[in-house]
Amino acid sequence: MDPETVFVDITSFAMKLNKFTHWTVDPRVKEEVEKTCFKYFMRFPEGKLNMPNKMIAALLRFYENVEEHFVFGDTKIDLGLEDVMYITGLPIDGKQISGIEPKDPIDTIVNHLAVSPVEANDLLLYHNGKKSHDICLKSLEDKFKNIAVTEENVNSHVKAYLLFLLGNLLFTTSSFDSVSAIYLPFLEVHDIDSYAWGAAVLATLKVSMNKVRQGNKTLNGFAYLLLVFAFERFKCLRKIFELNILPSQFPLMLGWVNLTFKTFKVRSLMPSMTTCYEKLREMTDEDVDLLPYKRDGLEVELPDQFKRQSWMVYAKVYTICFNNIAKHPVHICWKQLGLERGHVRKSFGNFKRINLQERGPEKDKDWRKFNPFYTNCNTRWTKRNMFLIKKDVIAHEPLVNYVQEEDDEIETEEPTQENTSPISTSPPMCNLESATPQDPSTSSLRVSTPQVASTSRFRAPTPRDEVQVQTLFSNPPEALSIEKSLEVLSFQISPQPTDDDFDNDHFKEHDEDDEGGNHNDEDDGDDEVGNNNNADDGDDNHNYDEGEHNNNVKNYIRGEREGILRPKPPKRTVYSPDEVLRVRNRRKLRKPKN
C-alpha cells in the first residue's frame, strides 16, 4: 500500500522537556552525570519546547511501516543509527538494552535507589486504583529532592536523575508520567556507556511511529530526534521555517534547539499539515540531503568514542529496547551512507517479519529470549559485525556483549558470505587443516566445518564423508605432513548415472579431478551404450581388467596419503548389464517410428 494513502494525525507528544529541565540537580550529581553519555541532555535550555505536530504528522504519511523507512517517489531515506549518533550523542554500539523484566519491581527499586520497601512501594504509579509496575516520575522527583546528597548516596541520586531523564525524554510512554524500573540495572556510572542507548532510543521511536501510522495520536519516545532528522535531511522543511543556518555543534540536537526554541513558541509561525505535505510530496532529489553530516567542521568534532563506532552505521540489524524491536534497513537506504552500488554486499541475512509483544501484567521474563523472534533479533545483535553491508569494513575493536551461559543454544541465520576465490565457488563439505609445526613430533590436526547459510544449495555431510575423515585420522600425523603450510581436502559424492551419461561417444567421468576427458555432449545418435573410442566394439571391453583397475586406484590413493608420487590410473565408468539394458530399452521407446 502507498504510504501516502494513510492519514496521520498527531495531537500530543509524550516527550516533556520542560519537566526534565525543571529538576535542578545537585553539583555532585551533575559531576557524575557529566562522566556518562547523557551529559549532553543536561545542556537543554529550560522551558517548554513546542513541537510542530502538523509537520511531523505530514512527514509520517511518507513512512513505510513494513520496511520502516521513508519513501518519497523513488527516493528512500531511513532514520538510522548514523542520524542517532550525530543528533543525540548516544552510543550506537554496545550491549543491547534488554534483559529480564522482574516480577516484582520493589526489589529492583530498593537495591538501586537505596530506599526502604515501603518507600519503594510509594514510588509506584497507581492507575485506575491499581498499583502498576512503573515508577511515578513526579513521586521520584519529590522523593530525591528532599534527600540530601552525600558521598554514600550520590550513586542512588545519579540513578534517580537518569531514570527521570529516560522517563521524560527518551523512553516516554502514553501515561506521560511514568517510567519502568527495568532500566535501573543499566544506570551504573562505571558501565553505562557500554550499552547501545542510541539503538534503544531508535527502536522505541520507530515502534511508536508505526503505531501512529496505525491510528495512535500520541507519539512516544524521543520525538525531537525525528524533528532534527527532518530538518537535516529535507531542505524544503527548512525553507518553511526560514532556517538558513545549519548548526555545527556536536551533538546536533543542542544546536537545533537553540535555533528553533523561540520559533516554535510562536504559534502563528507553525505551518499547516497541508503545506508541509505538499512540500514533501513535490520534493525532488535535489531537495533531499543524502550526506548532511559531511559538511565542513562537523565531522572534525566527532568524539573518538563515536569514530570507533562508526562502522555500526552499515550494520543490517534489529535495534532493540526490551520488547521494542525495529529494523535498520541499510540494505535499502545505502545511498545516504555515501555508498555506490559496487560497495554494497549482495542481499544477505533477510529480516524476519516484526512480531512484537506488549509488556503485559505477567513479569519475570527474559526479553532476550522471550520467543524465537526475540531470540533471533538479540542473537543477531551479538553478531552485528557479520551483517555489515559495506564491503571491506570490519570492526577493529572487540564487540561488547552479554556473557552467554554455556547451556544457551541460540540459533540465528548467518549471512551468506560472498566467495571471491577464482578457483572454486563451492565450499568443501569437510575441511582438514594441518599447519606445519615447528617440531614434527608435536604436529596436530584440526577439523573445521565451514559456516554455510541456511539457504545454501550445497548438501550436508553424509556418513560416507565421516568414514573418509576417520580413515584419514587413523594414519599417524607424520604420514599427513606435507611441504605446504596448509592443505584442504574436499570430499564429494559422485552422482548417480543418468540418461545424459549414455548420450556420448564414450563414458563420462564423474570425478571432478578428471581434466583430460573431452566429452561430446552434442552427439545424440544411435551409438550403443558402453562404447569407448579406445576400446573394442561391443557391450564389454574384454581388454579391461576390473580387478587390476581397482588395485591401481587403491595404490594411487595410498601413495597420495603417504606423499609418494605414483602414476594416476586411467578412470573408467563401468556400468552393470542391467543399467545398459535399461537405457537401451528407454532409447528404443524414444526413437520415432518411420
TrEMBL record:
<feature type="compositionally biased region" description="Basic and acidic residues">
    <location>
        <begin position="540"/>
        <end position="565"/>
    </location>
</feature>
<feature type="compositionally biased region" description="Acidic residues">
    <location>
        <begin position="406"/>
        <end position="416"/>
    </location>
</feature>
<dbReference type="Pfam" id="PF10536">
    <property type="entry name" value="PMD"/>
</dbReference>
<feature type="compositionally biased region" description="Basic and acidic residues">
    <location>
        <begin position="504"/>
        <end position="520"/>
    </location>
</feature>
<feature type="region of interest" description="Disordered">
    <location>
        <begin position="406"/>
        <end position="465"/>
    </location>
</feature>
<feature type="compositionally biased region" description="Polar residues">
    <location>
        <begin position="419"/>
        <end position="457"/>
    </location>
</feature>
<protein>
    <recommendedName>
        <fullName>Aminotransferase-like plant mobile domain-containing protein</fullName>
    </recommendedName>
</protein>
<feature type="domain" description="Aminotransferase-like plant mobile">
    <location>
        <begin position="48"/>
        <end position="367"/>
    </location>
</feature>
<dbReference type="InterPro" id="IPR019557">
    <property type="entry name" value="AminoTfrase-like_pln_mobile"/>
</dbReference>
<feature type="compositionally biased region" description="Basic residues">
    <location>
        <begin position="583"/>
        <end position="594"/>
    </location>
</feature>
<dbReference type="GO" id="GO:0010073">
    <property type="term" value="P:meristem maintenance"/>
</dbReference>
<dbReference type="InterPro" id="IPR044824">
    <property type="entry name" value="MAIN-like"/>
</dbReference>
<feature type="region of interest" description="Disordered">
    <location>
        <begin position="494"/>
        <end position="594"/>
    </location>
</feature>
